[in-house]
């Protein structure tokens, strides 16, 4: 009920209706500031934490799961996150048709659906074409931060990014990085740790204009 109430009462403050037309970050926020884009924010707890800790940046969250959107709306209201905006929209459509190239300073994708069965791998979000699209949207020296608890997915993403010229791996050994303090532990992640499950973080920087 609280999430439904949030969708009704708080969407007008934090939500952006998608009319499928191009937009600029300044259109959404009414100010020019570094833009952090989180794709698939789940219940929004980590996004709310990061936005609360960094009021000098603009935060745009994309999600299609309405209960998660409702939860984030409640947190945004509680924390007064005037620099956070939310869209209930498909990320690929937003990136391909609406968000300008080289307009994002940081992209975050935390725990995307791993589609663990081999026959479903083609449904995974992070594929070669999507990585190219992300590079187009990031500014030069912009960062891409991905975290997953699926080891096979983690290594496939690592291999893909390491093999793509636009990306520089910020790990000293060309592998994964320790979880940075800026990414908080989620309840799901803490539960996984108690069960002995691992999480793999990847941090890459865009190094040149994509072809």
Structure description:
The structure is a single chain. The chain contains nine helices and seven strands. A seven-stranded mixed β-sheet has the order 3-2-1-4-5-7-6, sandwiched between helices. Strand 1, helix 4 and strand 2 form a beta-alpha-beta unit.
Q: How much helical structure, as a percent, in the residues?
A: 25-40%
Order of helices and strands: HHHEHEHEHEHEHEHE
Major β-sheet profile: 7 strands, mixed
| Rg calc | 17 Å
Overall 3D form: globular
Strand content of the residues, in percent? Answer: 15-25%
**Uncertain regions: pLDDT < 50 for 5+ in a row?**
none
- Distance between the terminal alpha carbons, to the nearest Å? 48 Å
Mean model confidence by pLDDT: 92
Query: What's the number of extended β-strand segments?
Result: 7
Strand order of the largest sheet: 3-2-1-4-5-7-6
- Tally of contiguous helical segments: 9
**Structural class determined from secondary elements:** alpha/beta
